[in-house]
Amino acid sequence: MSDTRIAEVEGADREEQLLRYRPAQRYIHLLVASSFTVLFLTGLPLIFEPLSFLAANGWSRIIHRIAAVAFMAVPFLYFLADRQGAKELIVESFQYDKDDRRWLLHMGKYFLGQAEGMPPQGRLNAGQKLHHLAVLILGAGVVFSGLVLWIWAGQLTDVQLSWAALVHNISMLGLVLLLIGHIYFTVLYKAINAMHTGYVPRTDAELEHAKWVAEMDALKAREPKLPPAEQGPTPGSPER
Ligand code: HEM
Questions:
Q1: Ligand 1: which atom is nearest the Cα of residue 191?
Q2: What is the CATH number of the domain that holds 86?
Q3: Which residues are within 8 A (CB) of 73 and not within 5 positions of it... i.e. 6 or more apart?
């Protein structure tokens, strides 16, 4: 992890901020969120009879396919735009330690908005790790069944088509439920600023991701101390 993940913006009236999401990560996330929302809105008229008039002119099908291409492009774009961030997201999402297991045992408290006293967490808490696993499984379900319905529909029997549609709809329902939970936590922990600006206040990060903050501090302490003339951006310049 690069030292540039830490940025200090210190001033009389500004609390120290830690860099959590680089610009590429934020734009990729915006693409996931917007393409998924369009997929949901243009998918509803295709399966929900009372809304079928919205699909009558065929535009919703075309927009649905364009959004599907954007949604499928996300993992590739993530690797192209920020290989390090994409790797970290995958590796960290699948590594659980004893604090994660303890966190999961107490997650009811976190669900109610109380992060104080929870077992210390890394950059991702155990709930986020489970969320990412579920997104991966259901995302794969929705993508593969969607490709079957799009590309091979003409070669499938009615029964096979029904199975593909069932997998597609159930995966989408699961993703929508996950999104409702994702937005619930975003609001509960006022996390939208992290995705909007890329930064989180140090005190919030210490409360929710204490091990991540300790890791960042240790990295910073190991940074070679350069003479002032050779130093990069001075504190107060939040760019990377
Ligand atoms: C549509 C509204 C959405 C909002 C408001 C939203 C909000 C957020 C926020 C605030 C974070 C940062 C959480 C933190 O670090 O504390 C985040 C991260 C994340 N969100 Fe969303 N999200 C949305 C849609 C989605 C969708 C549709 C997906 C997947 C299908 C998704 C997957 C993720 C993932 C994987 C991360 C971690 C990103 C990384 O570490 O690079 N989000 N989201």
A1: 10
A2: 1.20.950.20
A3: 31
pLDDT tens readout for residues 202-236: 999 999 999 999 999 999 898 887 665 554 443 33
Closest atom of ligand 1 relative to the 20 alpha carbon:
15
What is the count of structural domains for the chain? 1
For residues 61 and 70, what is the distance between their CA atoms, to the nearest angstrom? Answer: 14
Ligand 1 site: residues with CB under 6 angstroms? 20, 25, 29, 32-33, 36-37, 85, 89, 132, 135, 175, 179, 182-183, 186, 191-192, 194-195
Q: pTM for the full model? A: 0.88
The pLDDT tens digits of the residues spanning 171-202 come to 999 999 999 999 999 999 999 999 999 999 99
32 occurs within a structural domain: no
Q: 11 in helix, strand or coil?
A: strand
The closest-lying atom of ligand 1 relative to the alpha carbon of residue 88 is 40
